[in-house]
Structures are given as structure tokens and as C-alpha cells.
UniProtKB/TrEMBL annotation:
<dbReference type="InterPro" id="IPR016639">
    <property type="entry name" value="GST_Omega/GSH"/>
</dbReference>
<dbReference type="InterPro" id="IPR036249">
    <property type="entry name" value="Thioredoxin-like_sf"/>
</dbReference>
<feature type="compositionally biased region" description="Basic and acidic residues">
    <location>
        <begin position="7"/>
        <end position="24"/>
    </location>
</feature>
<dbReference type="InterPro" id="IPR036282">
    <property type="entry name" value="Glutathione-S-Trfase_C_sf"/>
</dbReference>
<dbReference type="Pfam" id="PF13410">
    <property type="entry name" value="GST_C_2"/>
</dbReference>
<dbReference type="InterPro" id="IPR047047">
    <property type="entry name" value="GST_Omega-like_C"/>
</dbReference>
<protein>
    <submittedName>
        <fullName>Glutathione S-transferase C-terminal domain-containing protein</fullName>
    </submittedName>
</protein>
<feature type="region of interest" description="Disordered">
    <location>
        <begin position="302"/>
        <end position="333"/>
    </location>
</feature>
<feature type="region of interest" description="Disordered">
    <location>
        <begin position="1"/>
        <end position="25"/>
    </location>
</feature>
<dbReference type="InterPro" id="IPR010987">
    <property type="entry name" value="Glutathione-S-Trfase_C-like"/>
</dbReference>
<dbReference type="InterPro" id="IPR040079">
    <property type="entry name" value="Glutathione_S-Trfase"/>
</dbReference>
<feature type="domain" description="GST C-terminal">
    <location>
        <begin position="128"/>
        <end position="281"/>
    </location>
</feature>
Length: 333
């Protein structure tokens, strides 16, 4: 997650991914697919990093790509490893993710974002291209997928998945930020209206189908889920996306609960990290840095009824196994 604000036109602008090298299986890049070589650095607060956590888990890449989790609260040096002993990542040996950025480009002075994939032997950042990372986990790392791993980016559906993803990114994933960081009333209202128009269109699409594209979970569902799971907790109030709550959108609320209760989704979500990050770090929106108490997350565990629509969550595959002990998130109680 990396944010910039254009002050002159009062519009929020998301920084592009500056480091966009790819890890490939065919030798077409300097970075070969190699189990154990790379470390995925994430914040559980960040929706873009949340995508990578879900895909990694669904595909069973835990043993092939280790994960480092940063503190949800950034300081002036950005993401920090204060959740680990001695405030250092135990694999990379660094205190701040910016150190891996500096190894890749010593003069770099831009934002430090997650997800980030770091080359362990050199300590150098390989990529922070959140739009590409999950697609490459699906298509380049197939030799290390678990038996029964689902096909999250099936070739025959890629054009449709890409089209859905483009609309969801523009109006929903990024739309909530466009609204939340608007500095102009008219611009803010326009972004909120487009957001809810898209949510209504998605509700209509999902009314009689269990998943966005085809009859199995795909990359499209993962990209929508990471925004929906944060919606009532932070985007509704903190970002003023408050025409309606997710819980007031019956189709999307049931759809999101269906995914949350699917292994690989809810077991990667940490609501404490999500709320503390947004309410504390965005001090220009919430200068008192008061973290909201609600909503009660246990609603995510209530029945959703979406099984009646059919569909096969993992296609011809199987659910992922138990979450590794070191990666478990707090129980919803």
C-alpha cells in the first residue's frame, strides 16, 4: 500500500509500482522461481497485501515463499518489523522494509509499500507490483502449488476476469480511497456515487451466481473480497463511504460471508490490524487517532445460504490445509 496526494487538483492519486521485476519460471527475468529464495512481506491491514496472502494460502505456497508481517502502525520510516524479536525480521535481518528498497535502488526516495517480495540472499527488493504479484503466484509458481490447488486465473476466463478486475479496481478497490482522501466536496460525492453504483451492479451480477466469473473462486473474487471485508470496519465511517453498510447490501454481504468462511480467506484476516492501521496512520482524516470499537466481527461467521447457488469453490481441487501455527490470526470469539 502506497499513497500519494496531489495537492493542486484536490484529488487522491495512487503511486504506481516503481519496482516491477517479475519472478518467472522460464528464465525470462533475472529472478527465477526457486522455493525458499524469496520472502513475501505484508501488512495484514493492507488490502493489496491481503490478496497475496489469500492466493499464497489457496495455492499452498507457504513452504515455497516465507512471509514476514509488519506492524500495522507505520512511523516516518514506513513499515517496520516491530512484531518480531529485537524489532527485526528473523529471515531478512532488517528493521524496516525500506532497507530492502535501498538495496534495490540506493537513491530511491519514493513510497515504501506492501506487498513486497524480497530476495533473501541479497536482501534486495524484487517487486512491489501488487497488481502482478498474485497473477504470477498463480501462473509462474505452478511447480510448487500444493496437490489440489485451484486454478485462480484459468486461461479461458482471463479476458473476463481482467475486465471485471478493471471495473472493481477503478470503482471499488481504489474508489474507497478516492472518496476517503478527497479534499473537495464535489469530487468526494462523485467517487461515492460511482462506488455504490458499482456495488449495486456487482450485487445484480452475484444475485444468481455464486462467484464473479465462472462457477469457482478466481482472482476476481479475491480482489473484491479484500475491500468488502474492510468495508464496514473502516471504509464506511473512516472514508465516509456511508450511503450504506455492507451489511445493508444483502447479496454482497452474503457473498462476502461465503468467502470469509472459505478456508484461505477469513483465516488471513486480522480486524485488529486493519482498524488500528487505518484509524491511527491516517491522522489527516482522524487527527485524534481514536480507533473505532465496532463493528462486531462475529457477524462474519453467520450462515449465508450461498451454497444453494451451486458452484464449486475450488473447482476440481481441494481446500487448503490448516493454517501454519506461526501465521494464525486471532479468533473472532
Amino acid at each position: 500500500m502506497s499513497l500519494t496526494q496531489q495537492q493542486d487538483d484536490k484529488e487522491f492519486t495512487r503511486s504506481p509500482s516503481h519496482f516491477a521485476d517479475r519472478i518467472t519460471a522460464d528464465g525470462s527475468s533475472p529472478w527465477p522461481v526457486e522455493a525458499g529464495r524469496y520472502r513475501l512481506v505484508v501488512s495484514r491491514a493492507c488490502p493489496w497485501a491481503g490478496r497475496a496472502l489469500i492466493v499464497r494460502r489457496l495455492l499452498g505456497l507457504e513452504d515455497a515463499i516465507s512471509v514476514g508481517v509488519v506492524d500495522p502502525i507505520q512511523d516516518e520510516r514506513s513499515w517496520r518489523f516491530t512484531l518480531d524479536a529485537d524489532d527485526r525480521d528473523p529471515v531478512l535481518g532488517i528493521r524496516f522494509l525500506s532497507e530492502a528498497y535501498a538495496k534495490a535502488e540506493p537513491d530511491y526516495d519514493g513510497g515504501v509499500s506492501v506487498p513486497a517480495i524480497v530476495d533473501v540472499p541479497s536482501g534486495r527488493l524484487v517487486t512491489n507490483d501488487y497488481q502482478r504479484i498474485t497473477l504470477d503466484l498463480s501462473t509462474e509458481w505452478t511447480a510448487h502449488h500444493r496437490p489440489g490447488a485451484p486454478d485462480l486465473y484459468p486461461e479461458r476466463l482471463r479476458d473476463e476476469i481482467d475486465a471485471v478486475n478493471a471495473e472493481v479496481f477503478r470503482d471499488v478497490n481504489n474508489g474507497v480511497y478516492m472518496a476517503g482522501f478527497s479534499r473537495d466536496q464535489e469530487a468526494y460525492e462523485g467517487h461515492v456515487h460511482r462506488l455504490f453504483e458499482r456495488l449495486d451492479a456487482l450485487s445484480e451480477r452475484l444475485e444468481d451466481r455464486r462467484y464473479l466469473v465462472g462457477d469457482t473462486i478466481t482472482e476476481a473474487d479475491i480482489r473484491l473480497f479484500v475491500t468488502l471485508v474492510r468495508f464496514d470496519a473502516v471504509y464506511h465511517g473512516h472514508f465516509k463511504c456511508n450511503r450504506r453498510k455492507l451489511t445493508e447490501l444483502p447479496v454482497l454481504w452474503a457473498y462476502a460471508r461465503d468467502l470469509f468462511q472459505t478456508p484461505g480467506f477469513g483465516d488471513t484476516v486480522d480486524f485488529d490490524h486493519i482498524k488500528r492501521h487505518y484509524y491511527y496512520v491516517h491522522h489527516e482524516i482522524n487527527p485524534a487517532r481514536i480507533v473505532a470499537v465496532g463493528p462486531d466481527p462475529r457477524g462474519w461467521l453467520t450462515p449465508h445460504g450461498r451454497e444453494e447457488l451451486g458452484g464449486r469453490p475450488f473447482g476440481d481441487g481441494t481446500p487448503p490445509g490448516p493454517v501454519p501455527a506461526a501465521e494464525r490470526v486471532p479468533d473472532l470469539g
